[in-house]
Amino acid sequence: MPQSVEKILDHGPLFREPEYQEMFARKKACDGAASIDATALQSEYTRGWDYREKNFAREALVINPAKACQPLGAVFAAAGFEKTMSFVHGSQGCAAYFRSHLSRHFKEPCTAVSSSMTEDAAVFGGLNNMIDGLANCYSLYQPKMIAVSTTCMAEVIGDDLHGFIGNAKAKGSVPEDFDVPFAHTPSFVGSHIDGYDNAIRGILEHFWKDNPASAGSSETINIVPGFDGFCVGNNRELGRMLGLMGVSYTFIGDAADQFDTPSDGEYRMYDGGTTIDELKAAKGAKATVALQHWNSRKTLEYAASVGQETASFNYPLGVKATDDLLMKVSALSGKAIPEALRLERGRLVDAMADSQAYLHGKRYAIFGDPDFVKAMARFILETGGEPVHCLSTNGGKEWAEDMQKLFDGSPFGKDCKAYAQKDLWHLRSLLFTEPVDFLIGNSHGKYLERDTGTPLIRLTFPIFDRHHHHRFPVIGYQGGLRVLTTILDKLFDKLDAETNIAGETDISFDLTR
């Protein structure tokens, strides 16, 4: 036996033992798998231009899309509000997926319940599931608010959330005055960023619809962070910057504490988040600012409809993006940008200049949500790099046009292109036919790294196979410095790996770089 009680092997070395290798070989033979030579031949063909043309011509098939479904965004949105339980009207399996997806990234428990719809509810409707589910949720978990979203099953049969919640209240599942905002979030259209947007708008409508407060009655600015896997570090960093400016602000959903609870002997099912009182008062804010435009279009539309001034950005990462955000906040609030932030900006610019010789001319492929991809491409252009392939599965035609304007505005953007509504199998063809130096995205890119040899830099959600990245900011000047360092670390690791053979390549294996 390869292991014993005294010698427990991790799964990596365990499965490389002869017993397991024999088992894998027998299974492969039993499955009738193609031979190694035939597989290698087909693999080689998929790396060329001929296959790339066929790959980009496909219309009815998606392979490994770089997005998730709407309810995931709604579950994330609910986590940003004080003592709020996310209630997924659908099957248990769907809710388990959303919880595990967020837990694996944040390394924290993600609370959510479901109405546990099964075959009978799919035929007759999920009203009874809603009645029982809301009653159990309210009794067992004692939330201050229950935020309801939907999955495919509930949307296909057309369950009426407004009516169902009203009937559940009439049946006594929750008190009549208990807050149960909702949003329809069908999984078969849009993506997680649309689910986030729908959920945030639904929550605002719930608290603002009959609210007598008038927009502009306070000097507060509402901040909508968007779906952000780095919310723990980013929200705290933005709060610090706004605090230095003396700006009064309210986060419309702040999941930083919920996904970063301490280990101090006390289990917190809920922690932090925007309070209900803050939500109600937010209607009187002077303006609502979205950090991610493509995450917040419906939310901004609603904020504008109640008379608020609105503004949106594409993830304030890097020098100019942070400049734009701070100058807009300064204009809205009348608060000056302090010397402390000016110095932080100068330090980031200085760090970029220190490393310019290594960064200039590097070629990148970037994938992820549309706001992240634009922000990352903009920062790469600031470093003198070339974001050659920019791909967003949930980015549309308008996003691609916006990206082209970005490329046209920089001398480093002439060979760059945005690929909207394409997936990671498309990106594989791009990496083989037009290679780049680095790939920037999330953990799903590790298979592209293995296949194409392009080093992966993990800078966006989800990051499953590395720990604690989300605890540090990537927005603002301080966040930009961390992103810069992350890119440089990968760059120098690659350079060391290419120059570490003694007597052959080590003439450039330098101690000082």
Automatic annotation (TrEMBL):
Subunit and interaction comment: Tetramer of two alpha and two beta chains. Forms complex with the iron protein (nitrogenase component 2).
SUPFAM superfamilies: Helical backbone' metal receptor
Cofactor: [8Fe-7S] cluster
InterPro entries to which the protein is assigned, alphabetical: ChlB/BchB/BchZ, Nase/OxRdtase_comp1, Nase_comp1_CS, Nase_Mo-Fe_CF_bsu, Nase_Mo-Fe_CF_bsu_N
Family label: Belongs to the NifD/NifK/NifE/NifN family.
Cofactor comment text: Binds 1 [8Fe-7S] cluster per heterodimer.
Organism of origin: Pleomorphomonas diazotrophica
Protein's name in the database: Nitrogenase molybdenum-iron protein beta chain
NCBIfam families: nifK
Record's function text: This molybdenum-iron protein is part of the nitrogenase complex that catalyzes the key enzymatic reactions in nitrogen fixation.
GO MF, any single term: ATP binding
Gene (UniProt): nifK
Domain Nitrogenase molybdenum-iron protein beta chain N-terminal: 1-55
Coiled-coil spans in chain: none
Annotated GO CC locations: molybdenum-iron nitrogenase complex
Tagged with keyword Transport: no
EC identifiers of the protein: 1.18.6.1
